[in-house]
């Protein structure tokens, strides 16, 4: 039983699928399948069972994963101390919400690279919160910046900052100033598709005040959402930072719902798998730099 076989084994358990694990490891699927077959022969018992869409661990496989992680963590510690990191340890794969990919995250990432010697190659993946959680769990991403709360026991979670949300409407709308949620029952809403935290906040606040929001469009991008609002199809609940220029130039109208809703932004990573040195460095930089960047945002005021 060698280290390479254990790394291959853990990758298969992360992805629950041999093909996806092989792609992640940059090896052929037949080679990975053969390595797993050899590991089972060495142990003398099945470690996987086939299920719809992939594989799952047997009881023996679960025990092997526990010991494999302990061994690999010890090897990682030794490589880090001795300075013998592999190519994969020079990579940093980050997941981010599309609603954060235009401003906050690029600024933080640039600051990280400018203040870090020998900064790693960075892979950036955009997806909604549910998709990012799955990719962190699979091992495809080292960590992800997304909406909270995240109720996945296999993930460690740290809050980064909190965003205030406002209502944005076309210029012809009567919604302005402070508006109680009870006055929003007949508003046609444009929101993001299921899986995005902004949609969850809209439903949570509406249901808490006794009504179901009337959704006219569910979209996948902030640009499309604001475009539909400008065209007069309805209103949307969005972060204030999205619309400052739109309000300034009179293209949209803003109202402040009462009480003012917020969404929490956080970073997540897997509990059972030790972060690489670069992933730890970027996580720590996020926790330090993230809140200070958000503090530079202008205060929320009604138009």
Automatic annotation (TrEMBL):
Pfam family of the protein (one): LysR_substrate
Keywords: DNA-binding, Transcription, Transcription regulation
Family: Belongs to the LysR transcriptional regulatory family.
Protein name: Transcriptional regulator, LysR family
Residues covered by the HTH lysR-type domain: 1-58
UniProt entry tagged with the keyword Transmembrane: no
InterPro entries: LysR_HTH_N, LysR_subst-bd, WH-like_DNA-bd_sf, WH_DNA-bd_sf
């Amino acid at each position: 039983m060698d280290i390479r076989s254990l790394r291959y084994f853990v990758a298969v358990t992360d992805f629950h699928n041999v093909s996806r694990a092989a792609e992640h490891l940059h090896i052929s699927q037949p080679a990975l399948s053969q390595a797993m077959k050899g590991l089972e022969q060495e142990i003398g018992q099945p470690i996987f069972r086939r299920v719809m869409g992939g594989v799952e661990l047997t009881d023996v496989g679960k025990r092997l994963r526990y010991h494999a992680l302990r061994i690999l963590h010890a090897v990682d510690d030794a490589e880090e101390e001795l300075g013998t990191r592999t190519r994969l340890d020079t990579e940093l794969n980050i997941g981010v919400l599309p609603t954060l990919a235009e401003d906050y995250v690029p600024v933080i990432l640039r600051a990280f690279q400018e203040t870090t010697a020998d900064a790693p190659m960075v892979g950036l993946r955009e997806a909604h919160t549910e998709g990012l959680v799955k990719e962190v769990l699979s091992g495809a991403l080292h960590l992800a910046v997304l909406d909270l709360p995240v109720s996945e026991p296999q993930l460690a979670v740290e809050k980064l900052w909190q965003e205030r949300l406002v209502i944005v409407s076309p210029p012809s709308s009567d919604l302005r100033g402070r508006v109680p949620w009870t006055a929003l029952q007949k508003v046609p809403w444009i929101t993001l598709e299921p899986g995005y935290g902004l949609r969850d906040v809209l439903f949570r606040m509406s249901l808490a005040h006794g009504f179901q929001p009337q959704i006219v469009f569910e979209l996948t991008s902030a640009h499309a959402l604001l475009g539909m609002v400008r065209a007069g199809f309805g209103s949307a609940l969005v972060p204030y930072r999205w619309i400052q220029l739109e309000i300034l130039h009179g293209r949209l109208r803003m109202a402040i719902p009462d009480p003012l809703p917020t969404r929490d932004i956080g970073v997540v990573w897997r509990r059972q798998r030790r972060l690489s040195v670069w992933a730890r460095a970027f996580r720590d930089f996020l926790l330090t730099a993230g809140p200070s960047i958000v503090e530079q945002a202008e205060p929320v005021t009604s138009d």
